[in-house]
Amino acid sequence: MIRLAVFLSILCGFITSCKKKTATISNVTANSENIRFSVPSNFPNAIYTFDSNEVTNLRFRLGKLLFYDPILSLDSSISCSSCHAQSHGFADHNIPLSKGVGGQFGKRNAPPIFNAAWMPTFFWDGRVHRLDDFSMGPITNPIEMSETSEHVIYKLNRNPYYRKQFKLAYNIDSVTELTLRKALSQYMALVISSNSKYDQFMAGKVNFSTSEQNGFALFKVNCSSCHLPPLFTDYTFRNNGIDSIYTDFGRAEYSKNNIDKGNFKVPTLRNVELTYPYMHDGRFFTLMDVINHYSGGIKKSSQLDTSINSNLQLSATEKKDLYKFLLTLTDYSMLSDTLISAPKNSIQPH
Ligand code: HEC
Ligand code: HEC
Q1: Axis-axis angle for helices 316-327, 210-222 (nearest 10)
Q2: For residue 148, what are the contacts with CB-CB under 8 A and spacing of at least 6?
Q3: pTM for the complete prediction?
Q4: Bridge partner residues of 265 (DSSP)
Q5: pLDDT tens-digit profile of 124-182?
């Protein structure tokens, strides 16, 4: 059955009208009652272990409901999915800086949040270390969802449907902040992207075109030291020469250490075709802009990472090849997986 699901999702990647018979979250299958977490065969072990948050359908569905529900924001105008859209690899949609409650803009671009179970740190500066500790950050951020922990918990407890779902999922009589965080973690940790053309190629199931193969070779030499496969990031904090002077100090804003100035978390490149605009401030709109940055646009500074080749000059053909390779990282099965999509019936009124 799993094999069938994978096969169907590859097919669906190319035939958009194709109807899937089995819902998949890549390696997570839910064709029967039970949602399971399993590590894709080409991935390292996950960091999030589901200790004290064992995977169950009810918990997953509760987390998903919350992720898509604006009840978590002050004026019920914004949900997590407003800034993290499935169609864009759970990054923001088209805008450099995300818009929060009241139309306010933050200072950073919303990153994609699939494969969260493998992330050792969160945010561009890595200031959060555990997924379970994460979710109150955006909820209480004054320019994101602008809520308080007490008021969100009050609203959820006031809502009979949510009280019932929390009781069923976590066996508690009233909603707590801890269970809210855990439910959201469970949903995020089960959103896995591991079924791109690249993965199929590595598993020997499809071929790369000559252009994709050449692009892959260029990638291995120039990019993979930081965007390390299979997750396409090594989760370190580095400077890739987009500026020589920084107004956002990146990692140093958290560490308060000058050595980290202008260093940002290496972002994954899975689904990069759709996670535009790019970089921590969304300054580049197209992948070609990014490629032109790495080929001839690197700004030198004492912070520039030593593994960056600041003299790289790619030909027009090489740029196209690299671009074609980056497109192989799009995971159509995750992007169209209804199991992780917005629930059909939202809960109204709040
Ligand atoms: C107003 C837009 C907005 C909303 C709403 C929002 N986020 Fe985010 N999210 C961001 C931005 C911007 C960042 C990056 C901030 C930074 O690095 O300082 C981010 C970062 C993240 C990350 C870290 C990803 C990484 O690679 O480090 C996760 C996980 C995440 N958000 C989950 C959520 C969840 C869960 C919710 C709902 C409770 C949510 N977000 C609501 C904009 C938003
Ligand atoms: C020294 C490590 C390093 C190398 C080598 C490197 N990158 Fe990056 N890359 C980064 C960092 C760090 C960022 C985020 C920088 C920021 O936002 O300030 C980034 C961002 C990106 C982004 C934006 C992704 C997003 O979601 O915003 C793309 C695309 C990208 N790199 C592609 C490449 C390609 C293609 C190569 C090879 C030509 C490459 N990188 C080489 C470290 C590196």
Answers
A1: 90
A2: 140
A3: 0.90
A4: 237
A5: 999 999 999 988 888 888 888 888 999 999 999 999 999 999 999 999 999 999 999 99
Q: In the beta sheet, which residues pair with residue 284?
A: 278
CA of 43 to the centre of ligand 1 (A): 24
- Assess contact for 333 and 227: CB atoms under 8 A: no
Q: Using DSSP, state whether 312 is helix, strand or coil.
A: coil
Q: How far apart are CA 108 and CA 97, in angstroms?
A: 5
Query: Is 92:218 a contact under the CB 8 Å cutoff?
Result: no
Residue bearing the CA closest to ligand 1, atom 15: 123
C-alpha–C-alpha distance, residues 114 and 86, integer Å: 9
CB of residue 82 inside a 6 A radius of ligand 1: yes
How confident is the model over 195-219, as pLDDT tens digits?
999 999 999 999 999 999 999 999 9
Ligand nearest to the CA of 241: 2
What's the gap in Å between 83 CA and the centre of ligand 2? 21
Question: CA 212, CA 215: separation in Å to the nearest integer?
Answer: 5
Q: Is the CB of 113 under 6 A from ligand 1?
A: yes
Q: Domains in the chain, ordered, with CATH?
A: 44-193 (1.10.760.10), 197-332 (1.10.760.10)
* CA–CA gap between residue 216 and residue 335 (Å, rounded): 23
> In this structure, which amino acid lies at residue 65?
L
Expressed in angstroms and rounded, the spacing between residue 294 Cα and the centre of ligand 2 is 8
Structure tokens at 133: 């500790």
Q: Whose CA is nearest to atom 10 of ligand 1?
A: 110
DSSP 284-300: B-SHHHHHHHHTT-PPP
End-to-end CA distance of the chain: 39
